[in-house]
Amino acid sequence: MKATFPHMGNVYIGVKTLLDGLGIDYVIPQKNNKTSLDIGSLYSPEEICLPFKIMIGNYIQAIEQGADTIIIPGSCGPCRFGEYCELQMNLLKSMGYDLNFIVLDYPKDIGIEELIKRITKISSNSTKTTLEKFKALYDALLAMKLIDKIEELSHFYAGFERNKGECKSILNDCKNEAMKCLSSEEMIHLLKHYKEKINHIAVDINKNPLKIAIIGEIYTVIEPYSNFYIEDKLMDYGVSTKRGLTPSWWVKNTILSPFKLNSLNIKRNAKPYLSIEIGGHALECVGEAVTACKEGFDGAIQIFPMGCMPEIVSKSILPTISKDNDFPIMSLVVDDMTGEAGYITRIEAFIDLLERRRDNVLSGC
After folding, report:
1. Stretch (H or E) spanning 320
2. Which of 48, 57, 143, 188 could cross-link 40 (Cys pair, CB 3.0–4.6 Å)?
3. Domain boundaries for CATH 3.40.50.11890 within the chain
4. Given this model, what pLDDT does residue 279 score?
5. Is the pLDDT of residue 38 over 80?
């Protein structure tokens, strides 16, 4: 078996740690770029959403490097993503590829026993002992948690840093060095070092930067290529950002979902506006918008792919949240035809709006 997986934000660091620990051969797809999207767009149905197209590009690039097994997270409710694995399997089969798909779906949908069976399918190709396999899984979860924390701190501290660009530089160095790690132990050591490093950057506590929450559909929120590296651009503008949806959040949410203990605070905040799960991460989007307002953020930006029905529902609810709480929220829709210039202009205009609102409050207007 030579495994691969779609490139989604920091997921590759956790999966690399796991497969290194298990001693399984793998291919990490190239970081998402125009080539990935062009390949995916060429073979995907025209009306399918952006994440699907990029994933197909990832798979084909990895297959060309010898990958024969694809590991993919499963559905998060009645949205199009729940059919991805079937659609992708059929599409790649029609192209003449004979691949093995391992879908890590929610326990509430397939049962805990089936989930364990699928995870075992990955580890069955490992020659490690049972104890070593459990350690590899533990290290992978820890690595994912650490890189998500490093990224979270980098994005938030960017608004307070004394040396402009330091947070971004540390984050990029961390990700580049992580790709060079040859073992799970080396990866954990590296990530702990960078977490300590980001925690000790020079900050100006007298600064009061704009604070913006990034909400929306999980793929386009966590995968920087799909959102035109919005968090990096906001770091350059000296804006502090926060994003609730991360790979480590997804793992925790998946584990707790059978016991209905997942995302309790988000559900509580979303309840006045959306009291039931309608698929995708619509509930989280609504709940995070309310949470950001309560936490004193200046505004929120919703990002989702064109045609994402759960997020379209969320988008229709967000204006009510904005009006009720006097809290600016901007929605950005992304697709393979989205123009970067207009996209960036909207972000800059939103930042100007937030700055003017703050100035008006300070001047008593």
Report:
1. helix 309-325
2. 57
3. 2-126
4. 83
5. yes
Q: Quick one: pLDDT at residue 58?
A: 95
Q: How many CB atoms lie within 10 A of CB 306?
A: 15
CA 345 to chain centre: 23
Residue 80 has pLDDT above 70, yes or no: no
209-365: which CATH number, 1.20.1260.10, 1.10.3720.10, 3.40.50.11900, 3.40.190.10?
A: 3.40.50.11900
Strands 100-104 and 211-216: unpaired
Other C-beta atoms closer than 10 Å to the C-beta of 326 total: 8
Q: How many CB atoms lie within 10 A of CB 69?
A: 21
d(CA 250, CA 104): 12
CATH class of 2-126: alpha beta
Task: Give start-end residues of each CATH 3.40.50.11900 domain in the chain.
Answer: 209-365
How many helices (H) and strands (E) the chain has is answered by 16, 8
Q: Are 252 and 296 contacting, i.e. CB atoms less than 8 angstroms apart?
A: no
DSSP notation for 211-243 = EEEEEE-HHHHH-TTTTTTHHHHHHHTT-EEEE
DSSP state of 75: -
Is residue 363's pLDDT more than 70? Answer: no
Pairing of strands 69-73, 100-104: parallel
Q: Which segments within the chain are labelled E, that is strand?
A: 2-4, 25-26, 69-73, 100-104, 211-216, 240-243, 299-305, 329-334
Please say if the pLDDT value at position 57 is more than 80.
yes
The sign of the CA dihedral 195, 201, 203, 208 is negative
- Give the tens place of pLDDT for each residue, 331-342: 999 999 899 999
Task: Let me know: does 316 contact 347? Beta carbons within 8 Å.
Answer: no
Highest mean pLDDT, choosing among 51-55, 143-147, 335-339: 143-147
